[in-house]
Design goal:
By secondary structure, this protein is an alpha/beta fold. It is built from 10 helices and 12 strands. Strand 8 and strand 9 form a beta hairpin.
């Protein structure tokens, strides 16, 4: 693992969070804040995540934003944060503001026809129990199938989907445990771009994600903010920091909270944040040694 942000760089980042009047903490959900679950309505956040996010939001100094591949409203009962944070759903196709305002990109007829054909294909394969239907998108999940069965499902789905997507100029994107056909007009990087445009140029920003679709956001944030891969196993990524959930994720969020509740004039290094972040930084050091 090569963490391209140093221990000092991470300290400096939290120092900026402590001093900045406003910062942004942007998060993927499944696999980043929660375990994957066969029943997606039971994929609750890791223990401790919800209160930390709630407290970070309550400081009024960090804009907390979720960007998910799910429909945005699916996260509200899972997060159980009231009022809910801003949530971008379907990889940025829709935006649910924290005041309840909902925006979604219009879906053209050619896309609707193609998704209907893709759904018919899944029907013929008798795989509806693995399907997830969303506006402008259709996904098939095989995460909990044995490896051979998953490979078989993937092959049979793509056999029909590739030509359907090609004709309608839709994207087919594989993720950890499935594949999705969706409109190509928005991705998580576009959502990240909009969020950045709404922030002060000096505001500290971090994006945390686990899957391939998060790489679009990492690339947009590269050089401007902290890109964090949250995953039990490392993989090739544009992120510059790797955290293993849940322990390192919780340490990161705890350190963020500590930075938010400091008086801006105090240094992070002089505060109890140093103690709070010790475990996290120690783990970073281990990763760096592994890389060497
Ligand atoms: Mg994810």
């Amino acid at each position: 693992m090569l963490n391209t942000v140093s221990k000092l760089g991470l300290q400096d980042f939290f120092h900026k969070v402590a001093r900045a009047p406003q910062s942004a903490l942007v998060l993927d959900y499944d696999g980043t804040l929660s375990h994957f679950r066969l029943n997606r309505t039971e994929a609750f956040p890791y223990s401790g995540v919800t209160p930390l996010l709630q407290e970070i939001m309550a400081t009024g100094r960090t804009r907390v934003v979720l960007i998910t591949g799910r429909r945005a409203d699916e996260l509200i009962p899972l997060l159980a944060i009231s009022p809910h944070p801003e949530i971008w759903g379907i990889h940025g196709l829709e935006r649910l503001h924290n005041d309840g305002l909902h925006e979604i990109e219009p879906i053209d007829q050619r896309t609707l026809d193609a998704l209907s054909a893709a759904d018919d294909w899944i029907d013929n394969l008798k795989l509806q129990h693995l399907a997830e239907h969303k506006p402008g998108s259709l996904a098939v999940h095989w995460r909990d199938l044995p490896e051979d069965a998953a490979r078989d499902v993937r092959g049979r789905v793509l056999l029909g989907w590739l030509s359907i997507a090609d004709r309608a100029c839709l994207n087919i994107e594989e993720f950890d445990g499935g594949v999705e056909m969706r409109m190509a007009i928005r991705n998580k990087g576009d959502a990240m771009q909009t969020i950045l445009a709404e922030m002060d140029v000096a505001a500290p920003v971090a994006y945390l994600g686990d899957d391939q679709s998060d790489e679009d956001a990492f690339r947009v944030l590269d050089g401007r903010g902290l890109c964090v891969l949250v995953r039990p196993q490392w993989r090739e990524t544009a992120a510059n920091l790797w955290l293993r959930p849940p322990a390192q994720l919780l340490a990161f969020l705890r350190t963020w909270l500590e930075a938010c509740i400091q008086k801006p004039s105090r240094s992070v290094r002089e505060s109890r944040t140093t103690d709070c972040g010790t475990g996290l930084r120690h783990e970073q050091g281990k990763h760096e040694r592994r890389a060497g």
